[in-house]
Amino acid sequence: MNTLQVLHDDFSHWKCTKCNEQLVFAPVELVYLESKFSVELPTCPSCGYVLIPESLALEKMAEVERLLEDK
Amino acid sequence: MEQHELRQWEAQCTQEELPHCQTRCPLHIDVRNFCKKLAAGKINEAWAILYKSMPIPHIAANLCEGDCMDSCLRHELGGSINMPELERCCAANATKTPPLRPLPSKGKKVLIIGGGLTALAAAWDLAKKGITPTILSENPYEDLASVLPEDSFAQHQAAFEKLGVLFSSEDLPSNLNEASDAWDAVLLATQEAAALYDCALTDPAILQTEISSVFSVPSPCIATKIERIAQGKTLALSAERSMQNVSLTAGREHEGSYQSRLHTAVSSISSLPLLPAGETGYDEATAMLEAGRCLQCECMQCVDNCVYLAEFKSYPKVYARQVYNNAAIVMGTRYANKMINSCMLCGLCEEICPEDFAVQNLCLTARQDMVAASTMPPSAHEFALRDMAFANTAGMLAMNAPSASASTYAFFPGCQLPAISPHLVESTYSYLRDSLEEPVGLFIHCCGAPAHWAGQKELTQATTDQIQKQWENMGKPQLITGCPTCATMLAELLPHIPTRSLWAVLEEIGLPPTARLPKQPYVLHDPCSTRHDEPMRDHVRSIASTLDISISEPHHTGVLTECCGYGGLLDTANPELSRKASEHRAEVLSSCTEEEQDILTYCAMCRDMLARTGKRTIHLLDILFPNCNAALACCNADPATIPVTGFSDRRENRIRLKEHLLTTLWGEKEHVADTDAPTITYTEQASANMEERRILRSDIRKVVTHVEETGESLFNTETERHVASFRPVTVTYWMEYTKDENGYCIHNVWSHRMQILPPK
Ligand code: SF4
Ligand code: SF4
Ligand code: SF4
Ligand SMILES: [Zn+2]
User: Fold this and answer.
1) Which of B346, B511, B634, B690 could serve as B528's disulfide partner, Cβ 3.0–4.6 Å?
2) Which of A60, A70, A71 should one mutate to test binding to chain B, selecting the residue with the greatest count of B CBs within 10 A?
3) Distance (Å) from the C-alpha of residue B644 to the closest C-alpha of chain A?
4) Total domain count, chain B
5) Contact B750/A58, CB-based, under 8 Å?
6) B746 and B636 in a common domain
7) For residue B676, is pLDDT > 90?
8) Could you tell me if the CB of B528 is within 6 A of ligand 3?
9) For residue A61, what is the DSSP state?
10) Are residues B452 and B569 in the same domain?
11) Burial of B629 (C-beta count, 10 Å sphere; 0-12/13-18/19+)
C-alpha cells in the first residue's frame, strides 16, 4: 500500500503528554467502510497516539468519507 | 425498484410531453422551440427547426393556416401565437437554409399519382430517404406558383432538383394492379385519383389500401393545407416501410394531431395582446415580439413549488430514473444518494401535480431499499437516529396520572416539545389533569418518525412495538397528541391506538384562563404533517378565534402548506438545503401581509426551524400557557425572541423535565448530580462549532472522561493547548482544551468517521 503524504506543516512543536515525546511523522492506517489507506501522520513514537488536525478532519477526510459512503 | 415500477413513475410525470401546439400540428412542428429561437432573433435557427420537420418547407411555411392555434395556451391570454405569420416571416427572412443531404439511392422507385401538396410532400420525404419519386400529373403545382412568394418558389424548385424528384405527364395507368407490379409502390395523392381507382382503404390511419404496395388518401378528402402535407408524409412513410418489409404500424400512434397530456399552469399569467401583422406580414422586429409571447409551455409545477425539487435542477420523471439507476449501480459512485435523502417527504408535490406524482413515496421507498441493501450512507441520518434513541431511553417517560393505577387519557407531547419547551409540557399536562375528570397519564416518547423518514423499517417497528407495550401498561389510554407529526405517525403506524389532538381536547374543555391575550395579528404556519389533517387545522383556527387573534393565511396554507425544512430528516441529511427551505418558508410567510407579522405555529420543531431564520415565531402553547418555570430553565422573555434550542440543550431539557416531573409529581427522590465529574466550559467559538458540526456536550464529556482515566493527550507547545480524542462508537471526537483548577475549558472541537489504526 502506498503511504500518502497529506500534511506538509511542521508538527515538531507537538508533544505526547503521557510519554513526553515529540510527535514524528509515521505511516498510520485509516479505515472506513472496508477501505484502508496508509497516511503519514504526526504520531507519538512511543505510544502511537496519532494527531488528526482540525483541517484534515474537516476537509480531506470528510471528502473521502463522503466519497466512500456513495460507493 | 423494478423496471415496470420505473415505467409507472415515468408515465405519471408529464413534463416531457410535447406542448399542445406541437401535438395539434399535423406535422408536429416544434413550435415552442421555434418561438424561442425567433424571440431571441435567431431566425436562421428557427428556420432550421421548420426545415427539419416540414416536407416542402419553402411551400409549407408560406401556406400554413395555423392548425395549432386553436390549442395554443395563449388563446385566452391575448390570443394564440400567430404561427402562420411567424413562419412566413421566417421563410422570407432566413439567410441560411440547412443543407439538403438525401440518403444514397436505394434503387427503389415510387409512382405518385396526382399533384398538389400531398404529392409534393410525399415526393420530398421519399427523395430525402434515397427513394426516387415520380409525380404523375399534368399540373403538379396546381396554382402554387402564383400564390407563393417568387423567391420561395424558386428555392423550392432548386431543392426538388437537388433531390432528384421526377415529373411525368403521361397518361394515368389503366390498371392499378399492373402499375403496382411495375413500381415498388404506388401512391394515390388526390381524392380524384383515389376515386378513379376506387381502391378501398383498409387502415385509414396509415393510408393503407387493399393492394399491399398501394397507399392512398381517402376520397372524399377534407383537409387543411398542412393536413394535406401531413398526408404526403404518411404516404411516404407507409411506402418506405412496405418496401423495407417492416411493420407498417409500429410506433405510429402519434402521427397526425393528438391531444397532449402536458399540464401548464396559466392562472398567474397575464394577458398580452397578439401583434397584428401588416399587409406584407411581420417585419423581423415584430415577429420577435410575437414569438416572445409564447409561454414556452411546460409543467414544472411541483418543481416551481418545492425548494428541494428545484435544488437538484430537474423534475420528477428524471428523478425517478436517477433513483432507478442509483439502485442498479454495483461498482461505482451512487450520485443520487444525496438527492434521495434530501426530500422533506412533505407531500406538497402530490397535491400540486395534476397527475398526483408523490415524490415522497418515490424517495421514501428508495431510502428503504437503500437501507435493505446496506447502501445507505451511514452519516446521512445517524445524528437524528441517535437523538431518537436518546429520547426513547434516557428521555422517555410513561407514567400513569399521579396516584392512579391506570389512565383513561395520556398526554403524548412528542419528543421535540420536551426538548425545546419543557415548561410547556409541564403546564399543558397540569392543565389537562385539572380539566379532565378521568386520570391523565404522561407518555413522553418519540413516535418513530425519524426512523420512518430514514427508511429504517426495522427500527420503526421496534419503536412502535415499544409504544404499544407502554401504552398497554398504562391501561390503553386515549393518547392526546401535542405534536402534529406524532398524530400523523400514530395514525399511520399504530392505527388501533385511539388518539385525539391536544387542540381538539383544549377546544372541548375550554382554554386556560391564564392565556395571554395578544393584541397583535399573526400569520399562521400549518406544519406539513397537518396537510391531511383538516380537523386539527380547524381546531387551531377555532382556538385562535376564541382568543380573538386575527390570523393571516399565507399563499401556501392548509392542504398546500410547505415544510419548515425539518421533514424527512433534511436537517441531518443536507443541512444547507434545510436552511434554504426554512428561509423560503419564512419568506413566504413574511410576504403574505403588507405589514410584517409574527408567525404562529403549533409544532415545536416548526417553531425553531422558522425562528432560526430570524423571523419572530411562537408556538400556540406560548399563548395558552404564558407562565414560565425557572426550574425548567425557561426565562420570562418574549417567546418570539427565544433563541433556537441547540442540540445539547435539547437533550438536557429532556432530562431536566423528566427529573423535575418525577420529583414534583410522582414523589421520586431528587437525582443528585455527580459532583466528582470535572467542570467543562466552552468558549463561544467552541459552542458554535459544536452546533454546526453536530457534536454534543455529552460527546465531549466522554472525551474528558477518557482523558481523566488514561491521562492521554497531545500538547501544542506553541499555543500551550492540549488536544485529545475519543471514539465512543462510530465517530471520533476531538477537543482542543486548556485545563486549570476550575476544570476543562474547550476551545475547539471536530470529528471524523474514519478510524485510526495506530502504528504497530
Ligand atoms: S407537477 Fe411535476 S411531477 Fe407532476 S407532471 Fe408536472 S413536472 Fe411532472
Ligand atoms: S404558448 Fe407557445 S408553447 Fe404554448 S401552446 Fe402556444 S405556441 Fe405552443
Ligand atoms: S415531498 Fe415535499 S420536499 Fe419532497 S418533493 Fe414533494 S414537495 Fe418537495
Ligand atoms: Zn505517547
Assistant:
1) B346
2) A70
3) 25
4) 5
5) yes
6) no
7) no
8) no
9) I
10) yes
11) middle
Q: Which amino acid is at B98?
A: P
Report the mean per-residue pLDDT for chain B. 95
**Shortest Cα distance from B667 to chain A (angstroms)?**
47
Q: Are residues B576 and B652 in the same domain?
A: yes
- B615 CA distance to ligand 1 middle (Å): 31
Please indicate whether residue B355, judged by its CB atom, sits closer than 6 Å to ligand 1. Answer: yes
Domain-embedded: residue B433: yes
Residues B221 and B316 in one domain: no
Report the pLDDT averaged over residues B77-106. 96
Q: Which domain holds residue B165?
A: 108-244
Question: Quick one: closest CA in A to B750, which residue?
Answer: A54
Please tell me whether residues B184 and B213 are part of one structural domain: yes
Same domain, B370 and B231: no
B553 & B451 share domain = yes
Compute the distance between CA of residue B500 and CA of residue B140 in angstroms, rounded to an integer.
81
B657 CB contacts (<8 Å, ≥6 apart)? Answer: B418, B422, B425, B426, B444, B632
Domain residue spans in chain A? Answer: 3-69
Local confidence band at B645 (pLDDT 50, 70, 90 cut-offs): very high
Q: What is the CATH number of the domain that holds B224?
A: 3.50.50.60
What is the Å distance from ligand 1's center to B35 Cα? 23
The confidence score (pLDDT) of residue A43 equals: 95
Residue B637: pLDDT band (50, 70, 90) is confident
Q: Determine if ligand 3 sits within 6 Å of the CB of residue B345.
A: yes
Maximum pairwise Cα distance, chain B? 118
Min Cα separation B374/chain A (Å): 11
A49/B contact by beta carbon, under 8 A: yes
Task: Give distance in angstroms: CA of B573 to centre of ligand 2.
Answer: 40
Mind telling me how many Å the CA of A5 is from chain B's nearest CA? 16
Q: Is the peptide bond before B173 cis (omega within 30 degrees of 0)?
A: no
pLDDT confidence of residue B516: 82
Nearest ligand 3 atom to the CA of B345 is 1
More confident residue, B632 or B558: B558
Do B500 and B404 reside in the same domain of the chain? yes
* Tens-place pLDDT, residues B140-193: 999 998 999 999 999 999 999 999 999 999 999 999 999 999 999 999 999 999
3-class SS at B743? Answer: strand
Q: Is B13 in the pocket of ligand 1 (CB under 6 A)?
A: yes
pLDDT digits (tens, 9 = 90+) for B242-301: 999 999 999 999 999 999 999 999 999 999 999 999 888 999 999 999 999 999 999 999
Q: Cβ–Cβ of B758/A67 closer than 8 Å?
A: no
Using a 6 Å cutoff on CB, does residue B308 contact ligand 1? no
Q: Is B235 in the pocket of ligand 3 (CB under 6 A)?
A: no
- Beta strand B714-716 with B721-726 is antiparallel
A48 burial type by CB count under 10 A (0-12 exposed, 13-18 middle, 19+ buried): middle
Out of A48, A57, A64, name the one closest to residue B758 (CB).
A48
Verify whether the Cβ–Cβ distance A30 to B333 is below 8 Å: no
pTM of the predicted structure, to 2 decimals: 0.90
B136: which strand partners?
Answer: B113, B168
Cell numbers at B410, concatenated: 395520556
Residue B103 lies in a domain: no
Cα separations in angstroms, B303 against B5, B317, B359? 22, 11, 11
| In a domain? residue B90 | yes
| Among B274, B293, B295, residue to substitute to test ligand 2 (most atoms within 8 Å of Cβ) | B295
Q: For residue A1, what pLDDT band results from cuts at 50, 70 and 90? A: low
* CATH of region A3-69: 3.10.20
> Does residue B306's CB lie within 6 angstroms of at least one atom of ligand 3?
yes
B265 within 8 A of B301, measured Cβ to Cβ: yes
Rounded average pLDDT over B574-581: 97
